[in-house]
Specification:
Layout: H1 4-43, H2 55-88, H3 95-123, H4 129-178
Length: about 180
Amino acid sequence: MASAPYRTWAAAVKSTLLAVNHSVLFLCVSMYLGTGWSLVLFSFPVVPQLTVDNYYLQFVPQVTAATQFFTWMTAIMSIAALIMVLVEWRNSLRWVPIVVLLAITAATLLTVEVIIPLNNQMAAHITDQATLIDVLQRWMRLNKIRVGLWTVQWVAMMSYFARKYLDVSAARVVSEQGSV
């Protein structure tokens, strides 16, 4: 049987590792949220000014770099969300990582199956203006859906941390009332 100090230390280490896991997941969903809304607010408005001569530098290098980075980040997010599902499985907060994991999966499928083929078309140097307009309009429409999924991820994780904060605040109030 483990001694009480060891159990206390092990519990503290476990709590710390879970806090790091959940915080990394929140960091990742926040990066997606920021990237997505930045795209919608600052990149989409210039699309009407793009032509076959100037679109490439406006989109392709950034999208290529983002795809490479987010591929690894999505793998990390998925692992962190699975860990969170296992940890929270027996309480009401289990729905948070489940929602996050479902939104990660949906956004990833949307990206791989539909958006990346459009990225590849743009990377191949579209030379017809009508084709460019069609591809960019579909790309923006699909990215709005993906930004919606990223927003769902962030709201779910924010609700988790808000709930934890409110639980601690309520416990503090009860503790203060009991010591009066």
